[in-house]
Amino acid sequence: MMAEKYYPMWKTLGIDIEKHNQLLNILTQYYTSVYLSQKNRPKKMDYFDFVVSEIHGLRIQELEESRRAGKKVVGAFCLYAPEELAYAADATMVGLCGGADFSIPDADAVLPRTLCPLIKSFYGFRLNRTCPYFQSSDLVVGETTCDGKKKVYELLNELIPTYVLEIPHKPDTKQGKDFWFKELEAFKAELEKLTGNKITADKLKASIELVNNKRKALKRLSDLRAKSPTPISGLDALLIMQISFNDDVKRFTAKVNELCDELEERVSKGEGVAIKDAPKLMISGCPMAIPNWKLHSIAENLGASVLVEESCVGTRYFTDLVEPKGESVDDLLWAIVEKYSKIPCACFTPNDARIERVTELAKQFNVEGVIYYTLQNCHDYNVEAIKVDRTVKVLGLPMLKIETDYAMGDSEQIKTRVEAFLEIIREKKQ
Amino acid sequence: MMAEKYYPMWKTLGIDIEKHNQLLNILTQYYTSVYLSQKNRPKKMDYFDFVVSEIHGLRIQELEESRRAGKKVVGAFCLYAPEELAYAADATMVGLCGGADFSIPDADAVLPRTLCPLIKSFYGFRLNRTCPYFQSSDLVVGETTCDGKKKVYELLNELIPTYVLEIPHKPDTKQGKDFWFKELEAFKAELEKLTGNKITADKLKASIELVNNKRKALKRLSDLRAKSPTPISGLDALLIMQISFNDDVKRFTAKVNELCDELEERVSKGEGVAIKDAPKLMISGCPMAIPNWKLHSIAENLGASVLVEESCVGTRYFTDLVEPKGESVDDLLWAIVEKYSKIPCACFTPNDARIERVTELAKQFNVEGVIYYTLQNCHDYNVEAIKVDRTVKVLGLPMLKIETDYAMGDSEQIKTRVEAFLEIIREKKQ
């Protein structure tokens, strides 16, 4: 990306140009070393490489053009932020920055150090003004999924209007779902106020279809990764999932389907990316926001093949569709409640659906080991590791728990642990 | 306490006698050095000293006698556990152990180390079977106040039946209060199932009055502490508040009122406990379960006078009463929702009521400084310190933030910091 041509836009958005240039340099170098060094990548990854290269440029330009045409941009952090409602209000929903160590020193000047890196990262990005998605957002939608995010949204609201949607934590009670429905109604009203557009049944039906198509494309991609040999690296699949939160939905969906066409060809030819007998892994746990490629990169560089992410940046996003049982706005909102209450986030108690999901995925992908990934100080995922570990043991598989942040300081240590873990898998296979 | 005479009871309850003796020895020594070394204590503290000495003995014997007579015991951790409902079902609610470092090594073998000490402590107490309140409980009632507790309740439920009550986190929405009401209804049904007793309007009215009287007595005690000179130490007042979760409600209420009679006499005579010009402090933050006397002990030994705890083991418990607007079960449940939604726990977002409360208390008690107390890895209180700090600054007062666990390892460091803080207050006064 030629950064200079975007300077006027970034200045208008209040971006700290100098600091932002530092960020872009780091990202470009990191992306080049992690992604472009991979061998035998599908040709259709070109599009996604391009999107990454323009993720703070062309995509922001598109958003700004849409804003000039009267559309609103809603920034979000979480799968529970109901994007269907945003699109039905003719707004665009985008994922906000929160995956980089770069902004954490700025956050550390304000926030307790013991928060998880994702929270510190997003707050730091808004503070240091190097995330154009924040700068382009007319509203941020937060949620009450975890203590850290919930409380930091209060502080974020001092910097940018932040609406907090409450998510019930017992997923299966009638009163919890009734409450969720009411919370969706309240958020719908907020979006209508923000955009001046009424969310009608027709608009909501259309946006549900739009997002369902995206989910279907990602599910198609995911299923193709289960083929042997797997036709795409875990790193590339992760990247596509990460981009799904920022790219234009229709275009993105088409591009994922084009890639899947190519992958199907690869599969029919028996062409793959992993080395022969590469240990097949599932990674299960916390979300990995762009540019968090640390664990995939370590594992695949050591010869493993990451086949599936049981994660919000993974299967939790696309496994289920929104499936309305009627045509009214209420029916459609209820369908959203039903789909979203199936997202097995560790904020739920108990979160039995995740245990079932891990079991299903281990079988579908025929994995030989599970790496449990938790961000430091994330109590929900850290504690839930205990139950996932038991489940994985029942399946007769080894599990490695990695608790880490976004810094590279522990990379060598993680590498050593993953190496030993892969050795265990290889020995079991002999 | 003559421990031996309780051995048969403890054995029946499954207590690990040897380990429990170690705990009792530590507690007795600690209590003697912290409490019995205080000078000029009110005479009526005798009762509370006795309660502490028999807290694992006589009180458990009472609970066991009530169980033999068909009553149930419900263990709890949190102000949001609606004790009025438990008493209305003719059950007894008791606070569970969770304030001691003693049980944490046992928890550390299972739980992530980065959880807060309170959570590790209670889970460890159930694991190592040294808390007779756990062993006497027929049901534990948990709540979704924070991520760590919420997830560990799932594991606790494997050791003892644990019912989780969901608490909405946005305190002021209509849908949140409707949801809370439904959650109370569900818990009411659970208690009726457990006890075989129907919770009628009359029973609920009586239990509301019972608990209101306890809250009134504690409020009376709290208000007396605002007198100059203050007639009781912060340490003693903290102890009474801690005991309030375990003692028989009626007896406890009477004993607190007797103590208050004595304190009123002291006030009328101008008799106090603190040294002249002792810096007057508020402590605001996380709950301090028995035997967590660390911060009060350090501060008062350094010559400060702790006048008020803005805490769940403090003002949050007794400031508001349950005030029904009608006579039906629904009216009474709604009154509980209204009172409980005024408890300004940091799990709420935003928690403006706490900010207002801190301001009011600072004025009522004429404090000269605030120590903000947060348990390690408690995200809610750790982040909310930022807003409380601003509030305290607006009041023109200094604030010291202490983040600690239950171990004594950092006592010297805390002592040094509190000493410097008191020096700032003393210099301001000159």
Report on this model:
Two copies of one chain form a homodimer. With 430 residues, chain A is of the alpha/beta class. In chain A, 54% of the residues lie in helices and 10% in strands. Chain A is built from 19 helices and eight strands. In chain A, strands 2-1-3-4 form a four-stranded parallel sheet, with helices on both faces. A four-stranded parallel sheet of chain A has the order 6-5-7-8, sandwiched between helices. The longest helix of chain A is centred in the middle third of the chain and has 25 residues, at 201-225. The N and C termini of chain A lie far apart (47 Å). At the A-B interface, helix 9, helix 10 and helix 18 of A face helix 9, helix 10 and helix 18 of B.
Q: What's the short version?
A:
With 430 residues, the first copy, chain A, is of the alpha/beta class.
Going by helix content, strand content and strand pairing, the class of chain A is: alpha/beta
Report the β-strand fraction of chain A as a percent range.
Answer: 5-15%
Oligomer: homodimer
Helix and strand pattern of chain A: HHHHEHEHHHEHEHHHHEHEHHHEHEH
- Give the strand line-up of the largest sheet of chain A: 2-1-3-4
Q: In angstroms, what separates the terminal alpha carbons of chain A?
A: 47 Å
Radius of gyration of chain A: 21 Å
* Main beta sheet strand tally, sense and closure of chain A: 4 strands, parallel
How confident overall, as mean pLDDT of chain A? 97
Number of strands of chain A: 8
Helix count of chain A equals 19
Low-pLDDT segments, ≥5 res of chain A: none
General shape of chain A: globular
Considering DSSP H and I runs of 4 or more, what fraction of the residues of chain A is helical? 40-55%
User: Largest chain-chain contact?
Assistant: A-B, 44 and 44 residues
